[in-house]
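Data card: per-record layout.
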Amino acid sequence: MADPAGAGPVPSNVRQLRLDPPEVDPVFSHESERRVADLLDFYEIAWEYEPRTFVLEADPEGNPTSAFTPDFYLPGHDLYLEVTTLRQSLVTRKNRKVRMLRERHPGIRIRILYRRDLDRLLVTHAA
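The structure for this 127-residue chain is written out next.
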């Protein structure tokens, strides 16, 4: 995919601003992620979807045994976002993984968007 401004190729995991979103965006694993992407697009905030996986734990040989892939990266803000609107058991697991990420990679900035956060954003910024 080429950059419309002519600056060169755009990585395949960087989504271009779209004016007319398609009805289905197969890249997302959950509807809430699509809604966050649409909100970021509306405010013209550049984002990447699941661009990096962080190793959280490894076995004695160095093979990963636990890893975490945040949903979004906002390169203009050097910030990762994890969207969680699911069951409490999954929220608890994601909270634990984010805590481990912060411990093992202290220079990484990450925020979790919970269901209440997303609901508030969508109500506040609804068109």
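Known properties of this structure: Strands lie at 48-49, 54-58, 64-68, 72-74, 79-84, 110-114. The radius of gyration is 16 Å.

See the next section for split statistics.
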